[in-house]
Design a protein that fits this description.
The protein contains ten helices and 13 strands. By secondary structure, it is of the alpha/beta class.
Amino acid sequence: MSLESEIKKRRTFAIISHPDAGKTTLTEKFLLYGGAINLAGSVKGKKTAKHAVSDWMEIEKERGISVTSSVLQFNYEGYCINILDTPGHEDFSEDTYRTLMAADSAVMVIDASKGVEKQTIKLFKVCVMRHIPIFTFINKMDREANDPFELLDEIESVLGIATCPINWPIGCGKEFKGVYDRKEKNVSLFKAAMNGQKEVDTEIVDASDEAVLKDRIGDAFYDKLQEDIELLDGASAEFDQEMVSAGDLTPVFFGSALTNFGVQTFLEHFLSMTTSPLPRKSDQGVIDPFT
């Protein structure tokens, strides 16, 4: 196999967020679905719980925070994936800024109950300066969350980037039913996994099957979903790959990293939308990875 074909299969991305938005937990779940680990840890939990793989320093295990960047590699669906897990806390932000220089794209994790937070804004600006495409994962939908339309509006007004929801949440918290995939026209039904440590099978229902969908999510949520779909189709930006690559449009996904819900779907969509290593500017001119 040629060097060029190997490079084209490579995906290197950073995960950025405000502290406690679920960045390192999402990293763990990527590794789980990529087959790199058999049991996922998290950055929170009891002393007997498994720690996150990317939090390898003792201080990280003790305090449940990331204080240094880590690089994790795994293979998935023919791609060689490099994840750059960065510290979210401001005290360690310099390490994050340096790490972003190596990223070809970034996944921005947002807590659904808190929206766009201070450190997220700072890291987003660094990505913009480096012309890094940004993909958004709105996390913790299994908990009480802000209205999804308000979250999109906040991303656009605070960060100044257009949004394109790829999937859409149905309820939140104790009434979280799942997400509607706007591209595939189906609904993935939410089912909490035991501690989120293992992969979970997701029931998928064709959105056109009204009877089955109503049976699964209830009449009220079905009617609300139809209203939301109509509003999204009429008001939200259409997906545009060139705008995404230019950093002018962020595809938005909803899910719950802790319970694994939406992680695999996000990963598969993300890999189809992001690119292989791009040419880089340096003090010696442009460096092309293919030459």
